[in-house]
Please model this.
Amino acid sequence: MNKSDDPFRPGRDAVSFIPLGGTGEIGMNMALYGYDGQWIMVDCGIGFADERTPGIDVLFPDPSFIVERKGSLAGLVLTHAHEDHLGAVQYCWEALGAPIYATPFTASVLRHKLKENGVNGIEINVIPLSGRCDVGPFDIEFVNLTHSIPEPSALVLRTPVGTIVHSGDWKLDKDPVVGLPPDIERLRQVGEEGVLALVSDSTNIFEPGHSGSEASVRDSLTKLFGTYGERIAIACFATNVARLHSIAVAAEANDRTVALVGRSLWRINMAARETGYLTDLPDFASPSDVGLIPRDKLVMICTGSQGEPRSALSRIAYQDHPEVSLDAGDTVIFSSREIPGNEKDIGAVQNALAQRGVEVVTADDAFVHVSGHPNRGDVEQLYQWLRPKISIPVHGEERHLRAHARLTAEWQVPHSVVPQDGALIHIRPDGAEIVDHVQYGRIAVDGTRLVPMDGNQLRTRRRIMHQGVVLVTLALDFRGKLVAEPQIAAPGLLDEEEDEDEMNELIGLVEESVRSLPARMREDDEDVEEAVRVAVRRWTRRLMDKKPVVRLHIVRV
Model:
């Protein structure tokens, strides 16, 4: 794109901020900051699909806006290693082609992930903890915070317009078990230097007080493990390295061996040990070792806390895992929160376990989880330290963002803007406002393909799921005369044996719709297709109140 013709080219009088994902939703974080003709991307994450997207497991924000301007993209900066912040790099990087900046643990997780998926040649610049780097026109400082993963960093973006703090995901945990505590003193110093805008996490804005400490979970698990006599399986996010450590310490206190069951857990374990975490623990046992360990001496950490169909715990629950099983008297602990939209999948796995006599323990039953996000008291504390002039809430659904903005008014923040994905926000010394909107959307990972969520493929698939499909094959001579009975299939709508009368009626209707056409129209495939399609749609609407997708195959003989 010619720079002089680009109406969205960032200038020098304002910092441009565009969230392409992560506002109005939990996950899929991707944001752009622009100044003086250049852009940086902060995070590049995925989200998970639900029943509204049949056949799709993973989604990510459409990066087309910045891909069209890739010559102006100075770099991709990652706040931490969660999938909803870096999981889309493997899909986007070839189109973006920009260098990546990340702390050691985040860089290690990304390298393992890319290698596992056959993605090579990416430039990853490792920034030390509390480090600083220049990316395009931005002077960026990484300030250590805490979260449910090592090395989460707030980004301090310094520009001639002013300093913007992008919090990433965070919490205030003075005893995080793994990694450093939050650098509160540095946050205070940044506030003293002056902060123009704070772009911050809204996930737990409705939760009063302060989020809990990982050390408390470790102590609770230690007591809880002592109450069970058979195998214990515990499901948590693979990236929650502190939770892995807590589980291992609790298991050791109860004379139990810990096994990791799930490929992503092994990838995170390797990245953690490479960068100096978990090195005080013995090596974990593998799934093939599980059968050799006495039942009352085993704790298995499993992937699948969100009910993911191909996860280790799901396969165990449905007796489909090649090496691991659970039986009556065993216990499964869900040491995580339910991400909105995953409730049905989680419930299905829990019910499958319960049907086999496995005890299921969740956060409703015992203290087995603390959130990695800040409660309202923590958010207020951050505002007190930084004292920004402008608040821009992100990382939350619409209700979270608006509640966050209302609270900032109570906290004496002069200006706030509630963004939406695709909004172009200009941040200036005297305030911020939405000035335009850019192209945005969702890309679905459909097997080995990437397809737009609003494209014809998925639109048709959703319609087939709800309305069904009718497939019609017609054999016609070149004058349009039927030379054989129409062949019709309507999977999910009509059964050839059970609905024989209805099928015969539909076949007769199709024959009549062809015969009733004028001779000239019977010679044109498009005219025949339209007549049959209309007839079938009217019939299915009258009989079953459905509007199926109708597909015709015409053979001229």
